[in-house]
Specification:
about 500 residues; alpha/beta; Spore Coat Polysaccharide Biosynthesis Protein SpsA, Chain A; seven-stranded mixed beta sheet; three-stranded mixed beta sheet; 17 helices; about 50% helix; disordered N terminus; Nucleotide-diphossugar_trans; EC 2.4.1.80; transmembrane helix; ceramide glucosyltransferase activity; lipid metabolism
């Protein structure tokens, strides 16, 4: 009788015992993390799994043999877990890459602001140097046998102000041997006609004429008003001078002596006469600091910066391109006068005397409107100035540089900003003193107030000009196009 002896069943998938699992877990180690700086730079550290030499079981069998005999079949869960880990690692790499990109972007901007800061200091120094070298210098008189050329002075007039009579009379009393005054007035009922008639009666020996009505040759009302006077001009040199300009006795002589044989245009840097009141101080501070800095630095670098409020030109060269009527579709005709000459190889020079603005209407609102109008013209003619102009203003540039130096060198941002304001203030005071060439009509405290008001309001005027490109000038409204051309805006549009 055979007895069935129970034999242990051979299990093909028996689980590992607790001791084996513990041994495997204890053998796992994780490599140390890499340097955090390398991780920030975009190097992703993946943990590596390694094992010590595998132990043996209590009965002496090798763990490797047990694992080989009892493999664990792959499961769907483990596959999904691996995919999730891969996605997490990819997301980590992407996050680190974005952080690195942000870091290097900020680093680049900080370098640009810091370099631009030094460039603006260079402009300060160039303006002061150029002002010292060229302004208020006495010209050498030519020999007596060399006659001075005649000058036709075109004066476009619109309306009157309290200082108009004295401003116009300063042209009648200039110390120059041969010139004529051509007064151009658009409307027959303009009260400025009576003032001109009175001056002509008071100074009968001066060659002066009046032209009323203008001639529509373009969109620019100033060109239309001056066209009859330009056609009647009899001398080889043309001086276009705005109504608010006051002349000294030797101003015209200074401009003519600057007109060398290779020069086509002599312009005067805008400045302001000494007048009372905060608006007058504000105007003098602006034209003697922020405006003069760019004007004198541009002149030193031979960049076109001519303004048309007082400019002496060769009539023959204007006639070669069709006269002033050829510039009637521009609102900033002065810039394109100079550009036309430079394109043909002629030079532009600055007079040693600034243009003395002496308008009788001096208000803060009018001043801000005027500055904003000029900014709109620059944006249309030179679009890149929309980026450069705000970065050349004291307050905004100082804030950007304070951040940049803190980011790059860990300097104290507040201390850098205060030092920036102090240096800017001192250099502006020096430049204003150079242009004034004498005692200023206000004290340092008044200068501080006007300077601070101007600098703090610069960003507002910039944004206003950028937001509203339409220009109101005289009795019309104009819309600027890229390149400087202009079109009239109808009242119902």
């Amino acid at each position: 009788m055979r007895h069935n002896v129970a034999r242990p069943l051979h299990r093909t998938h028996c689980p590992l015992d607790a001791g084996l699992i513990s041994a495997l877990l204890l053998s796992i180690k994780r490599r140390p993390r890499r340097d955090a700086r390398r991780r920030y730079a975009g190097v992703c550290c993946e943990p590596s799994i390694g094992t010590h030499p595998l132990p043996t079981t209590h009965d002496g069998s090798d763990v490797r043999r047990l694992v080989a005999e009892h493999p664990s079949p792959p499961t769907t869960t483990s596959r999904n877990g691996g995919a999730d880990a891969t996605r997490r690692r990819a997301a980590a790499r992407g996050g680190v890459s974005k952080m690195a990109l942000l870091f290097y972007t900020l680093y680049g901007f900080a370098i640009i602001f810091f370099a631009g800061w030094w460039f603006v200091w260079l402009l300060h120094l160039l303006a002061i140097f150029n002002g010292k070298m060229k302004l208020h210098k006495k010209k050498t008189m030519p020999p007596l046998e060399v006659p001075l050329p005649g000058v036709s002075i075109i004066k476009p007039l619109t309306g009157v102000d309290p200082n108009l009579f004295s401003n116009l009379e300063s042209f009648f009393t200039m110390n120059y041997p041969q010139f004529e005054l051509l007064f151009c007035i658009q409307d027959e009922g303009d009260p400025s006609i009576m003032l001109v008639r009175r001056l002509m009666e008071k100074h009968p020996l001066v060659d002066a004429r009046v032209f009323v009505g203008g001639c529509p040759v373009g969109v620019n009302p100033k060109i239309n008003n001056m066209q009859p006077g330009y056609e009647a001009a009899k001398y080889e040199l043309i001086l276009i001078s705005d109504s608010g300009i006051r002349m000294k006795e030797d101003t015209l002589l200074d401009m003519v002596l600057t007109m060398a044989d290779d020069v086509a245009l002599v312009h005067q840097m805008p400045f302001a006469c000494d007048r009372k009141g905060f608006p007058a101080i504000l105007e003098k501070v602006y034209f003697g600091t922020a405006h003069a800095r760019i004007y004198l630095a541009a002149d030193f670098l031979r960049i076109n910066c001519a303004t048309g409020m007082s400019a002496l030109m060769r009539k023959k060269l204007l006639d070669e391109v069709g006269g002033i009527r050829a510039f009637g579709h521009y609102l900033a005709e002065d810039f394109f006068f100079a550009k036309s000459f430079e394109d043909r190889g002629w030079k532009i020079r600055i007079s040693s005397q600034p243009a003395w603005q002496n308008s009788g209407l001096c208000e803060v609102g009018l001043f801000q409107t005027r500055v904003a109008r000029w900014a709109k013209l620059r944006f249309a003619m030179l679009p890149h100035t929309m980026l450069l102009e705000p970065l050349s203003e004291c307050m905004l540039l100082g804030a950007l540089v304070a951040w940049a130096t803190s980011f790059l060198f860990q300097w104290d941002a507040f201390a850098v900003y205060l030092l920036h304001l102090l240096l800017w203030f001192l250099l502006d005071w020096m430049l204003l003193s150079v242009i004034q060439n004498g005692l200023l009509p206000f004290n340092k405290w008044e200068f501080v107030v006007a300077w601070t008001f101007r600098e703090c309001g610069a960003l507002y005027l910039f944004l206003h000009a950028l937001w509203n490109p339409t220009i109101r000038w005289r009795a019309g409204r104009y819309r600027l196009r890229w390149g400087g051309t202009v079109e009239v805006v109808k009242p119902d549009s």
